[in-house]
Amino acid sequence: MSKTWNIQVPGSTANLGPGFDSIGIALGLYLTLDVTLSDQWTFDHQSVHLPQEINTKDHLIYQSANYAATCYGAILPSCKVIVQSELPLARGIGSSAAAIAAGVELANQLCELNLSLEEKCRIATDLEGHPDNATASLCGGLTIGAMLPDGGLSLLSVKEIDVAFALFIPNVELKTQEARDALPSTFDRGYAVQASAYANVLIAALLMNDWKRVGEMMEADLFHEPFRANIIPYYNKIRELAKENGAYGTAISGAGPTMISLVQPEEVDEFVEKMRPHLPDYEIKAVSIDRNGIQLKVSEYI
Q1: CA separation for the pair 57, 130 (Å, rounded)
Q2: Looking at the chain, which residues constitute the CATH 3.30.70.890 domain(s)?
Q3: I need a surface site. Which of 53, 74, 199, 222 has the fewest CB within 10 A?
Q4: Start and end residues for every CATH 3.30.230.10 domain found in the chain
Q5: Which residue from 161, 73, 132, 63 is spatially nearest to 103, judged by alpha carbons?
Q6: pTM value?
């Protein structure tokens, strides 16, 4: 009797403006793996969003799975992995974090590690470097996290977030390192206090479903958006047009270059149709929040 594993991982948006490197929300766009044991490692990419040149040892899913297995003294068996993705690379909607989450779950299944959700989140955060996108992909809904001085992870997960998003996806990539290089290395104390205040109000408003205030705080960020605005195509135009057409607020999704608008679920499709004529070179999508996080199906066959 042999097994196949189907692993589905949602993409994510991070930051929502001032929630820099700590807030993530899972999105209804997915990375999917179909896995069978094999004599050697192979990856089969079946999506326009995935590269066709594949080096197994450099593959982020393989590296993440191998890291997770090594953390628990396990040896990762070889397998064939068929990969499909709705997440364009280097666009700020969590493609790398989804791959990390998928790799952690892959090791969990192949090596029978029996990891808890908390352990998966900790490993994924170690790999990603901050607890936003990957924890959202694993947990679903909204996650708010912090890496502690002792190396631990403090994480809050909230499933019931009744709002939708519109994504503005340009046909250009922006590597995370390039976006990070645009940021200052330090902030003055008064500046940091003000930036933190906006983040605090953002989180409180999210937990209270106060979408008007969430939108205001999304657009008040001081941590990263002022420094990345000039490398994001049509940054000001998108924010202005989105507000005119009913969005609560608009922010850079993750490190960009995708931007994301917060919209009422019953209005998001109409909002997208209104925005498309203004940005013909963009892919503009209505996206719901994924509340389930990573999902697994196991089948057996002879």
Answers
A1: 23
A2: 164-287
A3: 53
A4: 2-159+290-301
A5: 63
A6: 0.94
Mean pLDDT for 203-222 is 97
Which of the four pLDDT bands, split at 50, 70 and 90, describes residue 302? low
In sequence order, what are the residues at sequence separation of 6 or more whose Cβ sits closer than 8 angstroms to the Cβ of residue 34? Answer: 4, 5, 6, 81, 82
Residue 211: Cβ within 10 Å count: 18
Specify the residue for token string 């969005």.
247
Question: What does the alpha-carbon distance between residue 60 and residue 93 come to, in Å, rounded to a whole number?
Answer: 16
At 244-267, the pLDDT tens digits run 999 999 999 999 999 999 999 999
- Contact predicate 131/125, CB 8 Å: yes
Q: How far is 104 from 91, CA to CA, in rounded Å?
A: 22
Task: Answer yes or no: are the C-beta atoms of 284 and 171 closer than 8 Å.
Answer: no
Phi, psi for residue 276 in degrees, rounded to 5: -60, -45
Does the structure show a pLDDT above 70 at 1?
no
Pairing of strands 153-158, 283-287: unpaired
CATH code of domain 164-287: 3.30.70.890
Contact (CB, 8 A) for 216 and 249: yes
Alpha helix (H) residue ranges in 219-261: 225-228, 235-244
The CATH number of 2-159+290-301 is 3.30.230.10
pLDDT in tens, 96-154: 999 999 999 999 999 999 999 999 999 999 999 999 999 999 999 999 999 999 888 99
CB 145 within 8 A of CB 154: yes
